[in-house]
Probable quinone oxidoreductase (Prunus yedoensis var. nudiflora), 408 residues
Amino acid sequence: MTGNQFSSGLWRGKEITWRSRAPFILEWSPTLHYSHGPTPGEAAEIVGRTQKSVVRALATESASPPPAKMVKAIRVHELGGPEVLKWEDVEVGEPKEGEVRVKNKAIGLNFIDVYFRKGVYKAATVPYTPGVEACGVVTAVGPGLTGRQVGDLVAMLVSQWAHMRKSRSFLQTELCLFLLPLILLLLHPSCSRQRLEFQEPHIKSVNEDSLNYKTRDNHILVEPGHTVLVHAAAGGVGSLLCQWANALGATVIGTVSTKLKAAQAKEDGCHHVIIYKEEDFVARVKEITSDNGVEVVYDSVGKDTFEGSLACLKTRGYMVSFGQSSGAPDPVPLSAIAVKSLFLTRPSLFHYAVTRDELLGMAGEVFGNVQSSVLRVRVNHTYPLSEAAQAHEDLENRKTSRSVLLIP
């Protein structure tokens, strides 16, 4: 028997029929013809669950696994500039224990991708496939995994530490496999079988969740009356930080590089916008705050702004460093912090999502604010996934603003 021919057998006096291939589920009908069953020479164990009227035929371990799928992906064979990003064929097989397979619909691009590509953050091996966030549809679920099913719309966030281990998790590809919990997988509240809009705010789960812990951390609670400084205010995270800090009642000061980005920052809730190429942001912040300084600085730029950011803080202010797009900051002596009893932190999102409850708590608040329009994520730039190198180059050269997406 070959191809789609059927085998027959009896169970409790009823005839059942199966097609020759791997494990399958048959639902009762007068004559059963469903899905896949055992190949010739395989033993089939028929197990009935009368209440649900289901018959399962389980293939033996000798069953041949389905052939791997060949898909396109971005690959990095050596560290360096955008030119090291290659568009190649890769194999994606069936999910194993604890894995899911997802067809990507939109992939977020952030500076963390640049850090891995340059070697600022270390990947486990070279070659590797970059990418830490995406949105897609579950196409297969491995054994032993519950709570997810084929067809689910999910948001995905790969732990940066997954890249430092021999993980099968990667995102900048058409089809991907994820091993939980190296991947933080969220069922999207917008999951609708009739209408799936992938180029919408909620695909930027990494940006949204990261701003959640930056603005809502127990030690840095932004509240009415506070003044905050947000560098790169027109960037992916910066634009969201401005909106959320504004919604929390703070006065928001933002720095940007161009007049176009200044207009965008204003739209996103900045009360005062500083074009740092035209004026000294430290002097301007002191002027705006009557020389009092700000409660919090959110700095993703690093080397070019770090020292000035410390100077903008008031006594007992908080310096939140969460990126280094201009390079790593120079070492800071403790005496520089002691002058005003400042607090300096370099948080990682993954330390704030150690448990499932922590992740769901942050994500729930973020998605709720997106759905209620407190947060509006604007996708200003989309690139075909095959043009990831161009997207990286534009991001590094500050030609982009707000959210940047790669579309498979």
User: Anything to note?
Assistant: The two ends are 39 Å apart (CA to CA). Residues 69-204+377-407 form a domain with the Quinone Oxidoreductase; Chain A, domain 1 fold (CATH 3.90.180.10). The CA atoms of residues 369 and 375 lie 6 Å apart.
